[in-house]
Design goal:
This protein has three helices and six strands, in the order αββαβαβββ. By secondary structure, it is of the alpha/beta class. The protein has a four-stranded mixed sheet with strand order 4-3-6-5, covered by helices on one side. Strands 1-2 form a two-stranded antiparallel ribbon. The termini are far apart.
Length: about 120
C-alpha cells in the first residue's frame, strides 16, 4: 500500500477529508451533527481568530467545555495553527463568560470558550 500523497498535517487532513467526505457526518454529539465540510470551515474560522489574537505555533490553549461538536472544532482549530489544545476538566470548574487565561510552562493563552472566539 503506497504512502498517502497528502502532507501529514492536521490542516491537510481536515481539508482532504472535507473534499473526500463533504457533508457526511464527522461527529455526532448531543444530537448535533458536524460534517466534514463544517469541520473544515468552522475550525478554519476559529484558527484565523486565534491567529489574529496573537496565538500561534507552540502556544497552549485550554479547552474548557464538555465533549461536544464545539470541543472538536476548538481542538482542530488550535492544532491547525500549530498550537497545543489542552483539555481542561470542566466537572470541577465553574465556567463564566469572562475571558480567562491559562498558564503553562511555555506560554499563556485563552481558555476556550471565550466570546472572542466563536466555535
Amino acid at each position: 500500500m503506497p504512502f498517502p500523497t497528502i502532507e501529514p498535517t492536521v490542516p491537510a487532513l481536515v481539508r482532504s477529508s472535507a473534499a473526500r467526505f463533504g457533508e457526511k457526518p464527522f461527529l455526532i454529539a448531543d444530537g448535533k451533527v458536524l460534517n466534514y465540510l463544517d469541520l473544515d470551515a468552522r475550525s478554519s474560522r476559529l484558527a484565523r481568530a486565534l491567529l489574529a489574537a496573537g496565538i500561534g505555533k507552540g502556544d497552549h490553549v485550554g479547552i474548557l467545555m464538555p465533549n461536544s461538536v464545539e470541543w472538536a472544532v476548538a481542538w482542530f482549530a488550535t492544532t491547525r495553527i500549530g498550537a497545543v489544545g489542552r483539555a481542561v476538566a470542566a466537572a470541577r470548574t465553574r465556567v463564566t463568560s469572562a475571558p480567562r487565561r491559562a498558564a503553562s510552562s511555555a506560554t499563556a493563552a485563552p481558555i476556550l470558550p471565550d466570546e472572542r472566539f466563536p466555535t
